[in-house]
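Methods, example record. To illustrate the input and output format used throughout this study, we show the complete record for uroporphyrinogen-III C-methyltransferase. The sequence lines were provided to the predictor; the line carrying structure tokens was produced by it.
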Amino acid sequence: MVSNSDSGGRASNERKGPIGKVWLVGAGPGDPDLLTLRAARLLLNAGLVVHDGLVDPSIMAMARPGARLVSVAKSRSRHTMRQEEINALLVSEALAGHDVVRLKGGDPFIFGRGGEEAEACKAAGVPVEVVPGITSALGAAAAAQIPLTHRDHASIVSFVAGQCKGLSDQDWSGLAGKGRTLVIFMGVATAGDISDKLMADGLAPDVPVAVVEKATRDDMRVLRGPLAGLADLVESERVQSPALIVIGHVTAEADNTIRALALEAVQ
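The corresponding predicted structure is encoded as:
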């Protein structure tokens, strides 16, 4: 178990003995070599790890032998636990005196619901610390050699959740276009809606797009095409999560070797 000497918090006078601490830890985009040193140390010493389904098995294998591993995996159609239940789990374990590593793919505060979990812990008087991770957008861009900013192409980057509510009611006209890069998380299932929405809000159908599937992992694929063909690309290549969609002229910088290998893999 993570040492209580690093927990920084004790129970109120209404409780007997110390309470635990919750660490919201970013596991990065997949490759275990991209973990921060602090994340690796916490994982190695943790007695309880509450983890997402997107955390790579090679990272979970770094957990301390005998540690209690609790999966709270989520998918579009099925959740092991609702977010409210996850919040309650973290709080109850900490109040019971356990130190908890809450391990999340990417970074806890980039579409990781880390803010909600931190709020729940603080409301219950549980000390919480956030350990940042390499967000999947940065990991995917680096692995595919797509510069999200480029002096000739883009000086603005936007991150958007592709599963956001009320997609048709939002104005996306300023998110992509000349001088801009748009990175869409969790957009595989709604790729057709996303491309239709962007074109309806003024983006040209021939704007280049890249789909980076399983970024930084051995089976990573980088697929490219025009915005108008995004839905067909995702469907024909049977793209699966985790995958990110990058929209903008910077996608032309994607490494040709990676792209060629990706196309060979699906032929």
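Annotations derived from this record:
The chain has two domains: 4-131, 136-265.
The domain at 136-265 is CATH 3.30.950.10 (Methyltransferase, Cobalt-precorrin-4 Transmethylase; Domain 2).
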